[in-house]
Fold:
Amino acid sequence: MNLLRLLRQGGSGSMRSLFLGAAASSLGTTIVLGVVNQAAEEIAREQADFVDGPLLLAFVASILFYMWSESWMVGRLSADMEEAIDRLRMRLIGHIRHADLWRLECFGQSRLYETIVQNCQAISSNSQYLAQAACSVVLTAAIMIYIATISLMAFTLLGGFLGIAALIYYRQNRVLDERQQALMQQETRLFESISDLLDGFKEQRLNRQRSADLNTGFIGLSRTTADLRSEVHGLSWKQFVFGEMAFNLMLGIVVFVVPRYAPDVSGELLKISGAVLFMSAPIFGLMQSLAIMRMAEGAAGRMMDLEGELEALAEPGSRTPGLPLPSPFKEIRMAGVEYTFPAPEGERGFAVGPFDVSIRRGEVIFVTGGNGAGKSTFIKLLTGLYRPDRGQLLVDRMVVSTAQLMSYRALMAPIFYDFHLFARLYGISGFEQEMADSLMLWMEMEKVTRVEADRFAKIRLSTGQRKRLALVAAILEAKPVLILDEWAADQDPHFRAKFYREIVPELKRRGLTIIAVTHDDRYFDAADRRWHLEEGRLTEWPQAAGSAP
Amino acid sequence: MRVFAAILREIPENLRPLFWMNALSALATTALIWLVSSATEDAAKGQFSSRSLLLFLVTVTAFGISHFYTLGTVSRDAERLIHKFRIRMFDLVRQADLITVERIGHGSLQRVLIQDAQTLAQTLPLLAIGFQQALMLLFLALYLAWLSPLACVLVFAMAGAVVTVRFRRVKALRLLMQEAQAAEEEVFGGLTDLLHGFKEVRMSTPRAEGVLETLAEASARARRSNASLKSQWGRNYAVVEAMFYCLIGLMVFVVPLFVTGYHQVVVPAMTAALFIAGPVGTVSFVTPMFTHADLALSNIEAMEARLRAAAAGEGAALPEAPRSIALEAAVGRRGGFTLGPLELRCQAGSITCISGPEGAGKSTLMALLATLQGLESGALLVDGKVLEAARQQDYRDRVALLSAQPRLFDRLYGLSLPPGPELQALLARFELSGRVFPDGDRLGTRGLSDSERGRLALLLAWIEDRPVMLFDDWAASQDPAFQQYFLTTLLPELKARGKIIIYASRDETAQPQADQVLHLEAGRLLA
Structure:
């Protein structure tokens, strides 16, 4: 049981309290049953129309005991379970934080997100059924013991029948599981088809044939999904009705079969049938909670598997305390840095490098190159986010070791091509509000949004505007090196000119080192040097100004 | 009730047999109780009746068959209902105009097509169970009243109290539930931040610590509110169960005080009371689902009505491929933005170039020209004649719209590709060699970049060969070299093929040799 394994991580003693709680609440219920049966029997036997005082007292006491123990158990178990989920979740997030970029990219961010989000929800929203299931099992056992105290024969017959029925019921699960998987895949296809229509709305609207084909495809998918769902439902109803029938047959056994083999208990039959009726709640409850828990169970398994997979993503040295670098630096150098993308069997992966370049403090360097020339990969290598296959990064002639990688990265504030803008200015502190306001003014964003304490008031803006906010954040970070990957591509002509003619020179004047990937050949003269990339190879463009490649 | 109306309208076929089968299964359960208690009494007297046994077996079988029939049929019918709604809605969305779809929003459409449909499919069978159990309660009540009227009244009064308490408590629980959900959403928002901003987090230790600290706080909050939600749930559950036990207790501790001769009926009355707990629980669980199903259904129906109102009748064809298109005093609106009134005339075999900054209305203009969006006023003329609504789809089938972020379908949907060598040559021209692999009516691709997807969309339009070609900032994602190739070689080639070409771009530095150059500024067209 994955859920139990997970629960054990929540804290010591949670298994014990689960069992104790289940036992206590079952004991309460069984006493209620015994008391009621006893009272009914007295009335029937003595033919008396009165109430037994002590029995009534016992009844009230046992109900109170049941209520207390049941609430205690569910509360305790939920707290433990939530604790376990919280710990596991934070462990997973910790692993992600220390992951290696390339490995994480291969793993797939959306898969990661979905696994964590969906599975956490699946476990958390159904965790109380674990308590229910435990109670149901213990209670069924307790009632069976109660029956055994009345008649061993009845106990044997009912127990045997219950065992066989449970086995058959359990077997039906397997087919159901398999069809359920098929249904999930089918539904994914159906949902994809809906996204196809919505995301490609314009495209399908402009092509009657495509639109008609899309529709035919969807009708087919919808019909198959409906059929498959009906089948899955049919199977689970079959299981459900089987459970009900088995329960009814148990009553039949009590009243028709037991008296034949154990004539001496005929007078006690009421107690046994009453006990069986009492069992209906735990048995149907168990059927229900098992169906729900199947999902939570699978989710717990996937989460725990994920932990192992995430551990394998870790970047070497990321968890060790970092070592410092010489400060302030004079030069950053890439020496013989090469990188090859892993490729499928029999193909050669895209290779970049060797890069042998040096960046001196205070320089403005532009990086140019066509589609797929390796510009973004170059940036990821320069920032140490991709680990090179060969070669080294050096700061002031000192090789950057894995333990120094975080200190190395701390020199740089990058805005990537596929950048992410955080609403909060995480990790940026100690700036004056005035400074932030003047930067917003500089970026001509003061009318759109503002910096409020440590966050941007609004970030749902156009790409160009969000890039300006990212630049505000990067400047506030006060790192010596600014790295920009096609920053100006989303700006209108006016602001693009301002960027190259005003912002870049001013930042250079303030002593920042700037490395910018760009296409804007009009402004190449804004750089001190220019590097050109072609098919993963870098050449220094000798002239500082003007000419196109 | 909407649900009943929809069922009567859409899936009336099996209603009659369903009703009778459901009644049969409820009756069978009640008969079962009577049989069990009479057999108990027989056994107490040392008697055995083979007639009772036979009746018992017949009843159990009848119950199983009728119940299984009911549930299976309702599930199938529910799926049929969903299927009908789903394909009708899909068809309507397909034929709606762009502005309607944008106004409604992808999120709402998806919610209706996926979630509401799912809710309906899941609740309908439960409603059938609820109906069966309610009938059963009715039969049980009659049976109990026959045994002892007072017992019947007491039991059902108690059951009513249980249901009331349960509803009250569920309502109180809803607040905690919302709290827990909000806390969870915060965690997932933080996780999104971490994953989308992974590179940024990796670049700065203080940032990583800040993000993680926020996440840890949110996670701890989620833990606390989930735990308190669950323990409240547990208390509710315990209270409701305890009240059911009291209901049974009534039969042996209270009823005897008021009823003389109760000892004769105590056995069947107890049995009946024990049986009541299940159906009462089910009925009180299922009743609120009417509201869920009703809500889901009203969402679906409202969406359907909205889409239907926006659908236009189409079907007539244009006499020939358009030789010219024009806008006259055309006004388009999107959100609070108004485009026009503007005049525009474009001929076959010519290039019209429209420049303008972001937000000037280029995309709205393109949507108007492609009739993806209707005109607020003014007219779209094709070959000098106003384009009628009935001919819009035929016109649209002759327009290719290329934008910077095209959506590519993994199937070709009716487009036939040229033979191998010709296709390879085209792929090479569009710098897509080794990136795209034709496979039957599909195009295999390997993780294309934005610019590659743009070129692939252009390649497909090139093969489709439509007379009107609209470019909406298409070249923005291309590198300068390919932009140049496109502007100086590909576009002139399209012009030579006699196409009506309209090229909109915000980049004033990279523009084609055009027959007509216009500038769009704040929704106005300037020469």
User: Anything to note?
Assistant: Residues 544-549 of chain A have pLDDT under 50 and may be disordered.
